[in-house]
Design goal:
single chain, mainly alpha, 6 helices, PhoU-like_sf, Put_Phosphate_transp_reg
């Protein structure tokens, strides 16, 4: 890493870590949704909504710190992109849970649990990676694994779409379920965006 003579604002590291920890909370609520009956889903959606609001607060805190800091630990554009991408993950997870409740989905199609398991693994890896932003050490395996998980998520998503269009579901149900699995796929993409941004930061700072 380059040697710096100027001090840097270090609170960003803690805020990124807090944002990632909140995403882990969201991934656990997604896992909880899988085993919940319809009557319990509304309460899970409320907790997910609270977690999404906490994520918004974390993102706004990063932006406020960015706007008020003369010196930042890495490029301002990268800080903005990283914070926004972390926020996107939480937004997509909250949207998926909300859609399940709003559409009164009785049973999620087989394969959604695999999507959520991938997201939960990516959430754990992201939370583990954020503290390493201080030194930018031991991050290569993180972004390689998240990219692998995103490829796995793509395969799961394609299989889910094939399942939805196999004639088992009526047209309205297909539209509802497709929107849910598409949003979960967007969450996987957002995890990859975070990993790619971390890789960009590491390359710039090396």
């Amino acid at each position: 890493m380059r040697f710096r003579l100027t001090p840097r604002e270090t609170s960003f590291y803690d805020m990124f870590a807090a944002s990632a920890d909140n995403i882990v909370t969201g991934s656990k609520l997604l896992m909880e949704l899988l085993g919940a009956d319809a009557s319990a889903r509304a309460e899970i959606a409320e907790r997910m909504r609270a977690a999404e609001h906490a994520g918004d607060d974390a993102t706004h805190a990063i932006f406020h710190q960015l706007n008020s800091s003369f010196i930042t630990p890495f490029d301002r554009e990268d800080i903005y992109t990283l914070a926004s991408s972390l926020d996107d993950i939480m937004d997509f997870m909250e949207e998926a849970v909300d859609l399940v409740v709003l559409y009164n989905v009785e049973e999620l199609p087989k394969g959604v649990e695999q999507q959520i398991e991938v997201l939960a693994r990516a959430a754990d890896l992201t939370a583990e990676a954020m503290p390493h932003l201080r030194t930018l050490d031991n991050l290569t395996e993180y972004w390689i694994e998240v990219n692998r998980l995103e490829n796995q998520a793509d395969q799961i998503h394609r299989k889910l779409l094939a399942h939805l269009f196999n004639g088992k579901y009526d047209a309205i149900e297909v539209l509802k379920l497709k929107q849910i699995v598409d949003v979960l796929e967007e969450a996987a993409d957002a995890f990859e965006h975070v990993a790619n941004t971390v890789e960009t930061i590491a390359v710039k700072e090396s």
